[in-house]
Design brief:
- Helix content is 25%, strand content 27%.
- The chain contains nine helices and 17 strands.
- The strands form four sheets. The chain has a six-stranded mixed beta sheet with strand order 8-17-16-13-14-15, sandwiched between helices.
- It is globular and about 60 Å long.
């Protein structure tokens, strides 16, 4: 009896965004836990300069001595085009489509573990669409909107969700007059960023310009919002056999003296842990799950998302943002939410890949 060929999954990581290193960590997590009886893998890295390379050894995705991992510019190049992916001649420094020496990679699906701009924002999704390659996660439009918090907010509002009062500021343009209506403290953050990079908590007007300048280092558009006094609650959404499901909800808790859930608290000093709250009023978890599903559908998402909320002292549920490709290590929030909901890390990866392999509404074959 002939054996069935295992599906070849391309794990794409790195990228040109400020979340390059977090993408590498996510990729290592998936590479370690993926079901090897069902899938073969190839890791395609994107360097900070934008070069596509072949990450031939998983150890290259590991950090050391407190330094986060980075895709090396010295790795063998990959040719990526709408004809597919090709392993290129490592001795040829000017590889193009005509100088590809090795066979085309017979990739069945891409798992784009890219966070932030140039990956999570619809760009890699558009590339896969053009190449006719199936991929994990949301399509071009949902990815682009989910990345831009300023664009997503009015869509959430139109779907009946509560959002924090705020304004959008663009670098080089006057501050909007509505800014004067906001109450301090406020948060200033890049509109199209992630992992809290470029985000500041501002307690007075005298701190505002410095916070804007910091945000503009990451994006030319900043979102300013009133700080919400509430608990940070997150919910995972997963598509299984074409149907969307909400996970159990989890609460972010922070140790130490962090002002908020910043990059250091998330990734560098082990300050963050997840609590599965048991003290919420009856029906609150179900209400948050329903709103997470509403947000997922409002942006026309596919595959997966992590939806972040604030739950205030007076019982209001306020959406903060939706992540179309959340952090994906085994210890990341999204896998933890689904582990609590009865689906292991490996099972979660398998579900996402199998969903991508059967999707027909985005990729034309």
């Amino acid at each position: 009896m002939p054996t069935t060929r295992k599906r070849l999954i391309a794990i794409v990581c790195g990228g040109q965004s400020s979340e390059h290193e977090i993408s590498c960590i996510s990729a290592l997590g998936v590479l370690t836990a993926i079901d090897r009886e069902k899938f073969d893998t190839v890791v395609l890295g994107i360097t900070k300069s934008g070069r596509w390379v072949h990450v031939h050894d998983s150890s290259l995705l590991e950090g050391s001595d407190g330094i986060l991992p980075e895709i090396s510019e010295d790795l063998a190049p990959i040719t990526a085009s709408v004809q597919g992916f090709f392993l290129s001649d490592i001795n040829n420094e000017s590889v193009n489509n005509e100088s590809v020496n090795d066979a085309r990679l017979n990739i069945d699906a891409v798992f784009p573990l890219l966070h932030g701009p140039y990956g999570e924002d619809g760009t890699i999704q558009g590339f896969c669409e053009m190449a006719g390659i199936r991929y994990v996660g949301s399509g071009v439009l949902a990815s682009a909107i989910g990345m831009d918090k300023a664009i997503a907010k009015p869509i959430f509002q139109a779907a009946g969700l509560n959002v924090a009062p705020g304004v959008v500021v663009t670098a080089g343009e006057p501050l909007p007059k509505e800014l004067a209506d906001l109450r301090y403290p406020i948060f200033v953050k890049p509109a199209r960023g992630g992992s809290s990079k470029g985000t500041s908590k501002v307690k007075s007007e005298s701190q505002l310009q410095d916070a804007l300048n910091f945000s503009f280092e990451f994006d030319s558009k900043a979102l300013i919002e009133e700080a919400i006094n509430g608990r940070e609650i997150e919910c995972g959404i997963l598509e299984v056999s074409g149907k969307t499901h909400a996970s159990r909800i989890g609460e972010i808790k922070i140790r130490g003296d962090h002002e908020f859930y910043d990059f250091e608290a998330k990734y560098l000093d082990d300050a963050t842990y997840v609590l599965f709250p048991e003290d919420l009023p009856a029906g609150t978890e179900e209400a948050i799950q329903t709103e997470a599903l509403t947000a997922f559908k409002a942006l026309n998402c596919e595959g997966l998302a992590r939806v972040d909320f604030f739950y205030t002292t007076d019982g209001a549920i306020i959406i903060n943002e939706l992540n179309t490709m959340p952090g994906f290590t085994e210890s990341s929030m999204f896998p933890k939410l689904w582990e609590k909901s009865g689906k292991s890390y490996t099972e979660l990866i398998t579900t996402l890949i199998e969903s991508a392999l059967t999707r027909s509404n985005s990729v034309i074959r």
